[in-house]
Amino acid sequence: MTQSITPPAGMPEKIRHYINGEFVDSIDGEEFDVLNPVTNEPYIKAASGKKADIEAAVAAAKKAFDKGPWPKMLPRERARILNKIADIVESRKDELAAMESFDSGLPITQAKGQAARAAENFRFFADLIVAQVDDAFKVPGRQANYVNRKPIGVAGLITPWNTPFMLESWKLGPAIATGNTVVLKPAEFTPLSASLWPGIFEEAGLPTGVFNMVNGFGEEGFAGDSLVKHPDVPLISFTGESSTGQTIFANAAPWLKGLSMELGGKSPAVVFADADLDAAVNATIFGVFSLNGERCTAGSRILVEESIYDEFVERYAAQAKRVKVGLPSDPATEVAALVHPEHYEKVMSYVEIGKSEARLVAGGGRPEGFETGNFVQPTVFADVKPDARIFQEEIFGPVVAITPFSSDEEALELANNTKYGLAAYIWTSDLKRAHNFSQAVESGMVWLNSNNVRDLRTPFGGVKASGLGHEGGYRSIDFYTEQQSVHINLGEVHNPVFGKQ
Ligand code: NAD
Questions:
Q1: Number of domains in the chain
Q2: Of 169, 213, 290, 469, most Cβ neighbours within 10 A?
Q3: Chain center to CA of 484
Q4: How many angstroms separate the CA atoms of 385 and 409, rounded?
Q5: pLDDT value of residue 499
Q6: How confident is the model at residue 9 (pLDDT cuts 50, 70, 90)?
Q7: Which of 32, 106, 162 to mutate to test the pocket of ligand 1 (most atoms within 8 A of CB)?
Q8: Do 271 and 302 meet the contact criterion of CB atoms below 8 Å apart?
Q9: Do 330 and 409 fall into the same domain?
Q10: What are 31-75's pLDDT values in tens digits?
Q11: How remote is the CA of residue 59 from the centroid of ligand 1, in Å?
Q12: For 325-347, b where at least 16 C-beta lie within 10 A, e where not — what string?
């Protein structure tokens, strides 16, 4: 059956750049097709940005930074606009979610959750800048010192296609809250929801030139690469694949740019025999199959203690088979279409690799009734060996690897046995073990007996190949600001004497 789909209301005629307060086409007029993940038919054209478009966007952002009101406004004034942005995003949540779901293939209920989170990101950073306290230090009778926090300039924001609107808000919120101006380069697979930002920002009263957006590809000569190499962009916040992060790191080196990198993952979920098994099965199903498995923090390697291994695998496979695959727009859908045919091919190739490396216990193909589009059955492999490719490599789809362990030491060794280190999930009723394991596991974040729920105040980031630096809460404020120390003499002037006659 070929799926029929109706485009959501409010669809633009085409996707354009937004520079200095205006929607514009690429200077060379080039465009590319954006595909609908349910049919893989092109449904809209998007402007393909190159160096010249980035130059125009950076010039507008630089002018707004150097001459415009935004960096000089009081935090309270900026916060008012950020709160308005949050209100507008919230009030347009359904429209936004419909576009996001249509463009990216995310199930609609999950897209709504992401839109709500996007609003929260602006509200959170509005609160944070108003309550911002800077350091001050005293040496009584001699010196006082304080920290002068300043916006840095034009921030380059480069984002991936998974939960695109939310991830854009995660960078836009702190970047503009702190007084910077920005050039956003959204992911080429999913530019639709980003096309709503200009209207939202204009309605909220963000001054012209503070937000600019150039669509298009990332590779050399295209928008992403040109943004990284622009000398007037001192900061790059990037979320995407680890290999792209390495390229950006090298390309930004000549300017010693400030870099924040949220990269790939292959996170372990470790289930000990004393865990609440119902909760562990539910959470680990959600952890890898929500967001179509296109989640950087997916717990895509499940390590299970030997004594409960067979029972866990059986229950897990049975539950995976009940996960409802459906159209992105159907509120009952739990897993929908992967973003793009290229990504579908990649995920399917790992499914085939998995069949030769391990024991397939659920899924393993295209779901019945979905002959077109990027649909993959929730797929579970058991008895996966640590050197298997499906254990080591990020698949970024609804595919999970389950491996047994027989001791705490072996669990830790397996958990740490990949190049990645983004998240870890630990299921046990022994608190000492939980905390000791957390200390030893090589990951930027740990969830104990918990789903992937994050308090916005906590640092977010990975270690090893999963990232560089942390954002989230005050760490984002630190990344997007310069911290200048001012030293004040309170006593006598002690000048060393040089060259006295
Ligand atoms: P990607 O690296 O292919 O692309 C990400 C963005 O970078 C896109 O906008 C792309 O156009 C741009 N880009 C590509 N090459 C570039 C270059 N040379 N210079 C500048 N920009 C360039 O990643 P993707 O496939 O869009 O996203 C999926 C990846 O993102 C997964 O690896 C996932 O784990 C990761 N991710 C990480 C986090 C996190 O917080 N750690 C969150 C979400 C996604």
A1: 2
A2: 213
A3: 29
A4: 17
A5: 81
A6: confident
A7: 162
A8: yes
A9: yes
A10: 999 999 999 999 999 999 999 999 999 999 999 999 999 999 999
A11: 25
A12: bbbbbeeebbbbbbbbeebbeeb
Each residue's pLDDT tens digit, 214-264: 999 999 999 999 999 999 999 999 999 999 999 999 999 999 999 999 999
* Most distant CA atoms of the chain, gap in Å: 97
> Do residues 251 and 274 share a domain?
no
Catalytic residue among 168, 296, 305, 394: 296
Which of 361, 351, 439 has the alpha carbon at shortest distance from 402?
Answer: 361
Distance 217 CA to ligand 1 centre (A): 11
The answer to whether 472 touches 457, Cβ cutoff 8 Å, is yes
Kindly report the CATH number assigned to the domain that includes residue 253: 3.40.605.10
Kindly tell me if the per-residue pLDDT of 1 is higher than 80: no
241 is catalytic: no
pLDDT of 185 > 90? The answer is: yes
- Amino acid identity, position 329: S
Q: Residue 141 — very low, low, confident or very high, per pLDDT cuts 50/70/90? A: very high
- Give the CATH number of the domain where residue 290 resides: 3.40.309.10
Are 259 and 307 found together in one domain?
no
Pairing of strands 423-427, 268-271: parallel
Domain assignment present for residue 35? The answer is yes
Does any domain span residue 411?
yes
Look at residue 4 and tell me if it is in a domain.
no
Asked if residue 494 belongs to a domain, the reply is no
Q: How confident is the model at residue 2 (pLDDT cuts 50, 70, 90)?
A: very low
Whether 388 and 466 share a structural domain: no
Catalytic residue among 100, 168, 262, 294: 262
- Ligand 1 pocket test, candidate residues 241, 255, 345, most atoms within 8 A of CB: 241
Residue ranges lining ligand 1, Cβ < 6 Å? 158-162, 167, 185, 187-188, 217-219, 224-225, 228, 239-241, 244, 247-248, 262-265, 296, 394, 396, 422, 462, 467
Structural domain containing residue 110: 17-263+462-485
Structure tokens at 463: 């270690």
Is 262 known to be catalytic? Answer: yes
Give distance in angstroms: CA of 160 to centre of ligand 1: 4
Which residue's CA is minimally distant from atom 14 of ligand 1?
218
